[in-house]
Amino acid sequence: MKILLIASLHSLALPPTVQVELSKTVLLPCLFTLRPSASSSHEPPRIKWTKVWGQRGSDGLQKEQSVLVAKDNVKAFQGRVTLPGYNENRYNASLALTGLRSSDSGLYRCEVVVGISDEQDTVPLEVTGVVFHYRAPHDRYALSFADAKRVCVENSAVIATPGQLQATFADGYDNCDAGWLSDQTVRYPIQSPRPGCYGDREDSPGVRNYGDRSPDELFDVYCFAKQLQGEVFHSTVPEKLSLATASTHCHSLGAQLATVGQLYLAWQAGLDQCDPGWLADGSARYPINVPRKNCGGDEPGVRTIYNNPNRTGFPDTTALYDAYCYRDIDDCQSNPCQNGGTCIDEINSFVCLCLPSYGGAACEKGNDVDENSAFSFHPTKGKLVSSFLAYQCFCSCVVLFYTEGCEHTWRKFHGHCYRYFSRRHTWEDAEKDCREHSGHLASIHSLADQNFIRGGHDNTWIGLNDRTVEDDFQWTDKMDLQYENWRENQPDNFFAGGEDCVVMIAHENGKWNDVPCNYNLPYVCKKGTVLCGAPPTVDNAFLIGRKRSHYDIHSVARYQCADGFLQRHVPTAKCRANGRWDRPKIICIKCEFYTTLCCRYHSLQMTCLCWQNPERDRAT
């Protein structure tokens, strides 16, 4: 049998990790390119999924665990895994995995075999979140349903669902304490049934269910912490710490006492420390990943110090322990955004707000591409995926729109458009809103600019800030600092590093003052006066992103071919300084004239390569 391979998947870089919450369902993408020739037998492909373990055995090979094998319409697997697209397309090996458990995290390899030929690819999976049991500080079974939801939130978590507790039980969790769940039922997981701690069928392991309960009844609770937003670290001093001094100590380190949920997430990530420490709820706990002597038992987990032998009561607040502190990680500290982009810190990541002429994950130039290739742009990941087609056709002429001046509600002054927003935002959110309007918080470069902008009745944000380097003030639109109008003895950084954003003071003729960026104030946005109208239309293509009636100069419009059409040439057009759009170079060619030989998923995006069908050409 002759197999034609258009692309080898072995050499591709490892795709981004798929992150899904505990107990949810995930679809691991796998769509292969193998096709038998017309003269070969029609033997169906053999599909195999394998989980690859990180550690290696004594033979030096990576350990593997078979997940499923499928051939034709017979599937040699049961339970939580299916191939939802396999019946309709035998080369669609995408794997659905339900009821995700923490132990499901790992690297998955998909392999398809046709005759003596095969292809394979890998997908990393990370199951996020952790379930933990929580008890009131003073006694067992002391929480109503409302109290249960509240204490979970206070500890950086939410009340767990039955599915999340079941997934944790499947990974070996055993706890003989009845606790509230989100559906107002009360349950507890038992691995080893024993008197007073029976499973769901008395002497069988399972999750014991008390059923729906009155919200006024009192139990413990099972909480679910989703994702750690910063870092948890252990800290101590020679004389140890009371609860009050532990809180002060963490603050001196630019942090705060960690919550129970944060400590569990840090434990799940590998934190191992055999030293009890204070937490924000007044409890003392410590995380153990490597069980050892005098560290609280033979199983990994977070240990709790109780005041009473029956495992109730938090320690006296004057007792002396270490501290577990939590500090948010500012991913924007290294200034990762290029070309004047503004960095917005998010959970374990950052987002770059780019100037209109730039795009991509880090605001790299969006129009710096090879025009001899066709490209598909994935704006959520900032990646370019290239494909090739040796074919050419022509597109019809388009009408270009031109407009100059300022949009409605914007005021023109010295070649720029300004708008005052009375709604109140933090400085960061105000700048983000200005970017949404294709501008920035206002920059001021002369007394004339100053007099034009000032005059409001409230203190107002402007674009000046020293958030990147202390005392090095910069405008968000990257213009030079040519004019200053500081209030007397300002800037003074009064809050020792916390005053990084500049406000125009209404009652002092618009003098400037540096203040904390988390104040909620009105703001003034500024942008250029020359605008383009709607981007040109392209046959069989549509625009990516939010459509607007007008676009700032240097804006880049991105096109994507409709389903069933293949892209040729660069998919972008730029708004030039004269208010006119570039003529789009993209051409969308109907794929029915070609044989599709290569389709696969990249980060849940599919790219298809088309090639001329020689048999079709000979027939015509």
From TrEMBL:
Disulfide linkage: 176-197, 274-295, 354-363, 532-575, 561-588
InterPro entries, per database record: C-type_lectin-like, C-type_lectin-like/link_sf, C-type_lectin_CS, CTDL_fold, EGF, EGF-like_Ca-bd_dom, EGF-type_Asp/Asn_hydroxyl_site, EGF_Ca-bd_CS
GO biological process, one term: cell adhesion
Annotated ranges, domain Sushi: 530-590
Domain (C-type lectin) ranges: 413-526
Record domain Ig-like: where: 7-128
Annotated GO MF terms: calcium ion binding; carbohydrate binding; hyaluronic acid binding
UniProt keyword annotations, A-Z: Calcium, Cell adhesion, Disulfide bond, EGF-like domain, Glycoprotein, Immunoglobulin domain, Lectin, Proteoglycan, Repeat, Secreted, Signal, Sushi
Ranges where the Link domain occurs: 130-225, 231-327
Signal sequence, renumbered to the chain: 1-19
Domain EGF-like: 328-364
Main location: secreted
UniProt subcellular location: Secreted
CDD domains xrefs: CCP (cd00033), EGF_CA (cd00054), Link_domain_CSPGs_modules_1_3 (cd03517), Link_domain_CSPGs_modules_2_4 (cd03520)
Gene Ontology CC terms, in alphabetical order: extracellular space; perineuronal net; synapse
Repeat as UniProt keyword: yes
Function field: May modulate neuronal adhesion and neurite growth during development by binding to neural cell adhesion molecules (NG-CAM and N-CAM). Chondroitin sulfate proteoglycan; binds to hyaluronic acid.
PANTHER family on file: AGGRECAN/VERSICAN PROTEOGLYCAN (PTHR22804), NEUROCAN CORE PROTEIN (PTHR22804:SF24)
Record protein name field: Neurocan core protein
Biological classification of the source: Eukaryota, Metazoa, Chordata, Craniata, Vertebrata
Gene name linked to the record: ncanb
